[in-house]
Amino acid sequence: MSTDQSDAANDTARSTAPTSTATPEPPGTGTPDRSPDRASEPGPATGATPAEQQPESGAAAGVLPAEQQPESGAAAGPAPDAELDTARTDKPHTTDKPRTIDSAESNGSTQTTDSTQATRPVDGRPSSTPEKPAEPGSTPGKPVEPGGDDGSGTDAKKVDGAEPETAAGTGDKAPNGTDTEQQDGKGKEKSEADKEEKDKGKKEKKGGKEGKDKATDGTEPAKPADPFTSFGPAPEVVPGRVGRIGRAVRRRLVHEWSLAGLGALVLAVLMTWPTLRYPRHTLPQDTWDPTLQAWQVAWSGHILLTKPAQLWQSNAFFPETWTFAFSDTLLGYAPAGMIGQGPEAAILRYNILFVLAHALALVGAYALVRQLGSGRIGAVVAGVGFAYAPWLLGQAGHLHVISNGGIPLALAMLARGHGWSLRHGYRPERRRSGWALAGWLVAAWQLSLGFGIGLVFAYVMGLITVVVLLSWLVRRILRRTRQPVGFRLLLADFWGGAAFAATGALLAIPYFKVAELHPNARRTAEELHNYSPPPGGFLTAPPESLIWGDLHEPVRSGLPGLPETTLLPGYVLFALALAGLFFSIWTVRQRLLLLVAVLAAGVLAMGSRFFGGTWTYLPLFEHVPGWDGLRTPGRLMIWVTLLLGVLAAGSVGAFAERARQISAAERVPPRPGPFLRLVTLLPIVLVLAEGLNSTPHPVVPVQPAAMRVANGPLLVLPSDQKTDQHVMLWSTSRFQDIVNGGSGFTPTRLAEVRQATANFPDQASIDYLRNMGVRTVVVLRDRVAGTPLQATVDLPVDTLGISREDVGETVVYRL
Predict the structure, then answer these.
(1) Residue 153: pLDDT over 60
(2) Mean pLDDT in the chain?
(3) Are 320 and 230 spatial neighbours (Cβ–Cβ below 8 Å)?
(4) Confidence check: pLDDT of 181 > 70
């Protein structure tokens, strides 16, 4: 309370109070008589104020019981509107001034309480409104002392074990241990307990105005108000554009998928080393199929930039048509083929794609197993086992087989888009139509890389679609609770599935044309049997395996169709998958289903070696569209390896969870200790060790200078499957038409050309080539040894009507 307010209240009190009350009033003239026994009875502890303590009508605004109320004409003390502070103390307080005693006291009915309630006038104006009675339960019998010299009411606060505070604006100490204030013989008992409970906010605000910081629970002394509470907090610094970009980049770099992608890329470089040691001059495994595939990527990029309508009419196998469909096209890599020109650029491009394919396989399998519900360590084991299985080392020269990462990645995206996981089932709240659409597009891209592994993938996608539709139909028939799908998700599935189906249909048309024009392109049952692995093939590693290659040489020598029959997925992966059948995060039912799927894929991968394939592979080979183009059933090991990885992730995930449970009882926070962490990472190390390679990286033959200047159509001699694949790579400088070509089959006309030109240059071969439209023939001197061309390459041609020119290590004939 300020000094001005206190003075105003005191003046009002003096003007209305009697000036002399030293002599007690006789009984009957003031308040009714009250016996000492009754006066000493304490009031009720709780509840409403008893009737005998209620103020009379017209009485002063005090809160004394009825027996202690002054006469109706007595002056009323100031009744402020402010809230009251209640203080409690066990120590009585006395003042230096004698106090006057009203009629109640003269009758021996003095009443005291354990709490002191002071009244503050608002803005210095006394209040004539009677205040609420004092809170019952106060203890009578203790003397009530005045609050100051002038008789004005003052504030008091309870301070346990401390001296009373000085009343604001008076200089005297506030009364402590009382619940009433007497001024000039007139008792006043101030109480606003109910209002205090409702309006604590106002109390604190007004306490601040008086320079006090009141303790709300009455247990601490008042403190000066903090002047800084009037100011708001400092505004948060808003980063600029550069700061926001930097913060976003940092968040992305430490994200799980960023770390997974970077880790997969680094691991791919290390595990395929020395692929990137001389990336413009060497190729992994050999220089035959890799050069063919390097040409395929270069051709698709070149023709899509120049004449997209001529995509399927490649420059090889002149004058055949639909020649780009003679083997898997790797069309999905066409954007990479648009960069660079010439053989060196094609080799560099191939090596980069070779490394990236391994990284994508790891990321795809990791994403799929994580979406199914596995932990990070289990997902890494599955990803590493899928990308670096020992059997894939024998496929290092087949980029279209190594490029399998789109299969698990598409499945992971589709599962995420539909809110489904193996561990938690279908969760509608986790549906994401964008992820579902992206999954379909990735599946279409994977299909564009080739039907060698894409055909089986297409049928698996169709099978999954049929199973989902049938399950929905069964639930509808049985009238079970319908699970929401969502219109946007249905729309994404419709358009995504349409894009996938359209991609497959458009890509299949050229292959059906080739099968129609070249009946010898169809695979036979004899070829299928030659490339079908026996049961021992699943335990045999290819020679490119650093650990098992030499050890398995005796077994490998008895296998047919190498390297398509060495199909070891890894002994560690086998062991982890076997453990996953008994100790896993997957349910027993899920483990049994995974086991059945592994066995089914393994039986199909054996081709005709499983009881002749009568009831397994041969029905598919003979009746399912497109299946007769697959002569290597062993490539179904992609699915066996992926399913084994899921089983292995279950056992590793269960072990990791058990390690965390053990750590929870011993460490805070519950993280595995160093030893348990190393043990948990041991499966990853072992799986990686089995994937170490000793793959050779031979140097690619240098492009002859004549290939950079010769005009087409041209023929390079001698012609055979391996040489023609080099010629296709050399043609990437100009993409002139060439008669040469290498693929999964040899066209009839190319076989005739090779036979007709065996004795070139002679008149018969020259006439044959002229009738075909060939204008240039290039003979490679370094490859004629052991062929009829060795004796004819230096013969004169003056009588044949053609010209001859030596260009480096080649001889160029212009017809």
Answers:
(1) no
(2) 78
(3) no
(4) no
593-598, long-range: CB within 8 Å, 24+ apart, which pairs?
594/643, 594/646, 594/647, 595/647, 597/639, 597/643, 598/640, 598/643, 598/644, 598/647
Tokens of 807: 């260009």
Residue 451: pLDDT over 60: yes
**Cα torsion at 241, 242, 246, 247 (round to 10°)?**
-40
Q: Which residues of 200-233 are buried (b: 16+ CB within 10 A; e: fewer)?
A: eeebeebbbebebbbbeeeeeebeebeeeeeeee
Spatial separation of the C-alpha atoms in residues 588 and 591, rounded to whole Å: 5
What is the Cβ-side half-sphere exposure of residue 486, based on CA atoms within 13 angstroms? 16
| Burial of 429 per CB tally in 10 Å (0-12, 13-18, 19+) | exposed
**DSSP notation for 267-307:** HHHHHTTTTTTSTTTB-SS-SSHHHHHHHHHHHHHHHHHH-
Nearest CA-CA partner of 52 in 33, 65, 36, 39:
65
Closest by Cα among 390, 332, 394, 337 to 360: 332
Determine the Cα–Cα distance for residues 740 and 715; give it in Å rounded to an integer.
6
Q: Which amino acid, 592?
A: L
Question: What pTM does this model have?
Answer: 0.71
Name the residue type at position 538: F
For tokens 């790891």, name the residue. Answer: 362
In this prediction, residue 668 has a pLDDT band, given cuts at 50, 70 and 90, of low
Average pLDDT for 530-550: 95
Cα–Cα distance for residue pair 783/786, rounded to 1 Å: 8
Torsions phi, psi of 696, nearest 5? -70, 155
Query: What does the alpha-carbon distance between residue 439 and residue 417 come to, in Å, rounded to a whole number?
Result: 8
Q: Are 715 and 776 in contact (CB under 8 A)?
A: yes
Q: Do the Cβ atoms of 561 and 607 come closer than 8 Å?
A: no
Tokens of 480: 């079970």
pLDDT digits (tens, 9 = 90+) for 466-505: 998 898 888 888 877 767 778 999 999 999 999 999 999 9
Q: Could you tell me if 130 and 38 are in contact, meaning their C-beta atoms sit under 8 angstroms apart?
A: no
Contacts of residue 70, Cβ cutoff 8 Å, sequence gap at least 6: 30, 31, 59, 60, 62, 102, 103, 186, 187
Indicate whether 366 pLDDT > 60.
yes
In the three-class reduction of DSSP (H, G, I as helix; E, B as strand; rest coil), residue 450 is classed as coil
Query: How does DSSP assign 14-81, residue by residue?
Result: HHHS-S---SPPPTTTSSPP--HHHHTSPPPSSSSPPGGGSPPTT--S----GGGPPPTTSPPPP--S
β-bridge partners, 803: 814
Computed on alpha carbons and rounded to an integer, the radius of gyration of the chain in Å comes to 49
**Residue 243: strand, helix, or coil:** helix
How many CB atoms neighbour CB 146 within 10 A? 22
CA–CA distances in Å: residue 738 to residues 280, 611, 732, 751:
24, 45, 11, 14
Classified as helix, coil or strand, 720 is coil
Tokens at 761, concatenated: 């240059």
Give the DSSP H/E element, type plus range, for residue 623: helix 617-623
pLDDT digits (tens, 9 = 90+) for 607-634: 999 999 889 999 999 999 989 888 899 9
Q: What is the pLDDT of residues 264-300, one digit of tens each?
A: 999 999 999 999 999 999 999 999 999 999 999 999 9
Distance (Å, whole) CA 183 – CA 148 = 9
**Given 3-state DSSP classes, what are the helix, strand and coil percentages for the chain, each rounded to the nearest 5?**
50, 5, 45
Where residue 52 falls among pLDDT bands split at 50, 70, 90? very low
771 C-beta neighbours (distance < 10 Å), count: 8
Q: pLDDT of 391-413, one tens digit each? A: 999 999 999 999 999 999 999 99
Total residues found in the chain within this entry:
815
Dihedral angle sign, alpha carbons of residues 780, 785, 787, 789: positive
Cα 188 from Cα 130, distance rounded (Å): 11
